[in-house]
Write a structure and sequence with these properties.
This protein is mainly beta and 57 residues long. It is globular and about 30 Å long. It has a single domain, classed as Single Sheet (Rubrerythrin, domain 2), CATH 2.20.28. It has a five-stranded mixed sheet with strand order 2-1-5-4-3, with no helix packed on it. It has no helices and five strands. It binds zinc ion (ZN).
Length: 57
């Protein structure tokens, strides 16, 4: 189990078998996050941008 911090709200997020570029949703604030870096059991997240993709309403 790896861990990271939501850049939006600061909540700790646990993720199993993280993969770079994977999209996860923060359970705390609901923002979509992209895994930007995986370093052992530490994960860095970036807020996933909605660049012309179907990102919902
Ligand atoms: Zn959050």
């Amino acid at each position: 189990m790896a861990k990271g911090v939501c850049p939006e709200c600061g909540a700790e997020i646990e993720i199993e078998d993280p993969v770079e570029k994977e999209i996860v949703e923060c359970e705390e604030c609901g923002v979509e996050l992209e895994v930007s870096k995986v370093d052992g059991d530490e994960v860095e997240f970036e807020v996933a941008e909605s660049e012309g993709e179907d990102w919902g309403e």
